[in-house]
Amino acid sequence: MKNVKGMSTNFREYSCMNYVIGQGDSLYSISREYNVPLPLILRLNPFVDIYNLQVGDEICIPVVEGATQENVFEYMVEEGDSIQSILDKFGIDIEDIIRNNGLNSIMLLPGTTLNIPNDIV
């Protein structure tokens, strides 16, 4: 992993996992697979031609330092879930969700996977 600094003072430092583009990949599918907002992938990969991804191209996928497999579990958002219902269900606050998912905003869609801290549940 290499460190990549955000492109403006509003971004913190991210660790990056190098991802090699495979057949059929799109930045959207990669963002869904790794639960990383698409705009963040775009910001950390400013030279990627989003209209002409090539098999074998490498991009940076930001890795959230707080979210390791040892200290979080994955929760899949279900139909009818809201931010508040998830916070209440696990007894956490919004900062826990943001910190463990590398998000600066949360858009809940059924099927989205969120990292929930283990030490809380």
Write the layout of secondary structure elements.
Blueprint: E1 2-5, E2 13-20, H1 27-34, H2 38-44, E3 58-63, E4 72-76, H3 83-90, H4 94-101, E5 113-117
Antiparallel strand pairs: 1-2, 2-3, 4-5
Short description:
By secondary structure, the protein is of the alpha+beta class. Helices cover 26% and strands 23% of the residues.
- What portion of residues is helical? 25-40%
User: Helix-strand pattern, N to C?
Assistant: EEHHEEHHE
**Over all CA atoms, what is the radius of gyration?**
15 Å
Largest sheet: spatial strand order = 1-2-3
Roughly what is the average pLDDT, rounded to an integer? 75
Report the structural category.
alpha+beta
Give a short account of the largest sheet. 3 strands, antiparallel
Beta fraction of the residues?
A: 15-25%
How far apart the termini lie comes to 30 Å
Number of helices: 4
| Tertiary shape | elongated
The total strand number stands at 5
Low-confidence stretches: 1-12
Explain this structure.
By secondary structure, the chain is an alpha+beta fold. The chain is 26% helix and 23% strand. It has 4 helices and 5 strands; from the N terminus they run ββααββααβ. It has helices at residues 27-34, 38-44, 83-90, 94-101; strands at residues 2-5, 13-20, 58-63, 72-76, 113-117. A 3-stranded antiparallel beta sheet has the order 1-2-3. A two-stranded antiparallel sheet has the order 4-5. Residues 1-12 have low confidence and may be disordered.
